[in-house]
Amino acid sequence: MSLKADKKPSRITRESFDEVVEVKVGPKATVFQIHKGLLCKAAPYFKVAFEGQFKEAEEQVLECNDEDVTMFKHFQYWLYTNNIIDESETVKEMTWQSIVSLYIFAEVRDIPDLQNAAMDIMINKVSLEHRIPAREFHQIYEQTDENSPLRRIAIDWLAHLGRLVPAEWLVEFDKDTFPKEALVDLVFAQYELRVGTRALIKDFGALRSDYHIKPPGAAV
């Protein structure tokens, strides 16, 4: 099973390695030096910041004070390699908080390739550990909208895996682990399973493309 994101060499060209800009991440303003061409090609957000009419374009410095440094290290590595984790790290070693934060970072800044790569890592991690990111449900529901694939797969994990494995997998959590909106979504998902309008998913890896962001014009 591949734990790497698919290669997307077309994003990286000779022109990508032009001037270097600074991104200051986290409350301590940890400095990342990154080629501006890579950032601007990855997302319109960075292109507007560094080439628009804002102070970031003049100073060539962007502040991301609310972002996690560890998450951003994975983003930087992905920018240059198209992989989220390097060869010295495993999926198990990458924390759920980092993966979920990386997905949300990509969703907010409209970086679909990174969203899909992060989704693949999450699916692989669930398959390896037989656990879901229950403690991150509040973050997921607070920082995504109702149409987010991240919400959808989180509820599908909760509804479908709960029917496939013993109930003890949830014993360490209590009712406050899950936001009320998630519990409502779970009720609807379980109802659809019960009445047969939704098929039970036994292998999320085989259906990972259902949770990917599709290119414009792609068949649904």
UniProtKB/TrEMBL annotation:
It comes from Stereocaulon virgatum. It holds the Pfam family BTB. CDD domains: BTB_POZ_ZBTB_KLHL-like. It comes from the Eukaryota. This is BTB domain-containing protein. Residues 17-88 form the BTB domain. SUPFAM superfamilies: POZ domain. PANTHER family: BTB DOMAIN-CONTAINING PROTEIN, BTB DOMAIN-CONTAINING PROTEIN-RELATED. The lineage of its organism: Eukaryota, Fungi, Dikarya, Ascomycota, Pezizomycotina. Transmembrane segments: none annotated.
